[in-house]
């Protein structure tokens, strides 16, 4: 085995699991303390304007906390992601075209902002179930808001400062799952599942905004995701692990198309434009099948176990289609959509895990 291959493999491994940096950890703590102070002042103002707010509900303390978290997340993620391009393992981002780097930054900021809002909203929704009808007085408004915004700043800064393909994959999964589940539990139609999955995005309320916004922001993040995948695959091609030199461009392009299709599903809810909505959803499934079927050509050199898992995903997809067709009719439309949705994002997680270890020598 050549020295060049060992060096490339080591570089890829380091990129997948970057070591903690003292400077990053220190900056995260200082930003958390500063955000905590801002949160305390924000909590005081909220409590003075709206005394004794409930934990959850329309314009509740939880909603104000979620808004504050999203603002802090937007500022911290923009500063942290932009500044991290000079840190070890992130230098390759400086070679990106300015427009591409800008789009990547915007998508990372949007997803962290939305995720901060959703996570905070869900936390206070759960707290409201435990502390029923508890009013938030000024003291607790200050304390809770300070802790909420401080923790948001700390977590977000660490997330964007050491962004890798695997971290972005985890961020994408967490965002999609949390956004979808939040839309499910807050929808005004509790029998939405009897219609179809996309029915969640047809209401003119917060649940539909969350559902459609999750799909749009998730699609934008997938396009950024493609840039990281291309970089990792170029490293594997240069190391001789992937034999198809065009695979980074091909796979990343397919991921970009998949991201655009996912965003299209959210931009055109089924009650706004059913044709565009269905074409976007179908196009995403088709790209998924192309990536699975074309894997032996696009990804020649990946571990054999990866292809076993990929064919398993393909088999599950085909089985789901068979069980859904009218002649069989075992699956409802809702069940079929959820299963295909889960298969796509499940495969992405598996693919990224194997991409991260493909350069390692056993």
Q: How is this structure best described in words?
A:
With 362 residues, the protein is an all-alpha fold. It has helices spanning 3-16, 22-49, 61-83, 98-130, 138-161, 165-186, 206-238, 247-267, 274-293, 295-298, 304-324, 333-357; strands spanning 53-54, 135-136. 42% of the residues are buried.
Reconstruct the topology from this structure.
Elements: H1 3-16, H2 22-49, E1 53-54, H3 61-83, H4 98-130, E2 135-136, H5 138-161, H6 165-186, H7 206-238, H8 247-267, H9 274-293, H10 295-298, H11 304-324, H12 333-357
Antiparallel strand pairs: 1-2
Helix pairs in contact: 1-7, 2-3, 2-5, 3-4, 3-5, 4-5, 4-6, 4-7, 6-7, 6-12, 7-8, 8-9, 11-12
Q: How is the main sheet built?
A: 2 strands, antiparallel
Helix fraction, binned, reads over 70%
- How many discrete structural domains? 2
Taken in chain order, the helices and strands follow as HHEHHEHHHHHHHH
Top keywords for this entry?
ABC transporter permease, 362 residues, 2 domains, flat, two-stranded antiparallel sheet, single chain, mainly alpha, membrane, 74% helix
Quick structural overview:
Keywords: Membrane, Transmembrane, Transmembrane helix. The protein is mostly helical. The protein has helices at 3-16, 22-49, 61-83, 98-130, 138-161, 165-186, 206-238, 247-267, 274-293, 295-298, 304-324, 333-357; strands at 53-54, 135-136.
């Amino acid at each position: 085995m050549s020295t060049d291959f060992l060096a490339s493999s080591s570089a890829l491994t380091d990129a997948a699991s970057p070591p903690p940096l003292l400077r990053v950890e220190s900056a995260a703590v200082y930003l958390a303390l500063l955000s905590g102070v801002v949160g305390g002042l924000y909590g005081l103002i909220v409590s003075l304007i709206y005394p004794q707010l409930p934990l959850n509900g329309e314009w509740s303390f939880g909603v104000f906390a979620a808004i504050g978290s999203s603002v802090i997340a937007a500022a911290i993620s923009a500063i942290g992601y932009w500044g991290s391009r000079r840190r070890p393992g992130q230098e390759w981002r400086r070679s990106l075209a300015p427009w591409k780097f800008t789009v990547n930054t915007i998508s990372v900021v949007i997803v962290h902002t939305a995720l901060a809002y959703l996570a905070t909203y869900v936390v206070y929704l759960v707290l409201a179930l435990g502390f029923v009808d508890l009013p938030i007085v000024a003291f607790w408004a200050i304390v809770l808001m300070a802790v909420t915004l401080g923790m948001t700043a700390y977590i977000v800064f660490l997330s964007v400062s050491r962004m890798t393909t695997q971290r972005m994959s985890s961020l994408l999964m967490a965002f999609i799952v949390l956004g979808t589940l939040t839309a499910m539990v807050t929808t005004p139609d509790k029998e939405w599942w009897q219609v179809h999955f996309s029915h969640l995005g047809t209401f003119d309320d917060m649940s539909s905004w969350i559902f459609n916004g999750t799909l749009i922001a998730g699609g934008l993040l997938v396009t950024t995701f493609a840039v990281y995948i291309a970089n990792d695959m170029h490293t594997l091609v240069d190391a001789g692990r992937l034999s198809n030199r065009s695979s980074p461009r091909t796979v990343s392009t397919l991921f970009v198309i998949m991201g655009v299709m996912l965003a299209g599903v959210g931009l055109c809810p089924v009650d706004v434009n059913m044709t565009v909505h269905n074409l976007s959803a179908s196009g995403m499934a088709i790209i998924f099948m192309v990536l699975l079927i074309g894997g032996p050509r696009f990804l020649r050199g990946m571990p054999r176990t990866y292809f076993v898992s990929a064919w398993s995903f393909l088999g599950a997809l085909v089985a789901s289609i068979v069980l859904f067709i009218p002649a069989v009719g075992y699956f409802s439309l809702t069940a079929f959509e959820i299963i295909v949705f889960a298969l796509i994002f499940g495969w992405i997680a598996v693919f990224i895990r194997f991409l991260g270890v493909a350069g390692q020598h056993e």
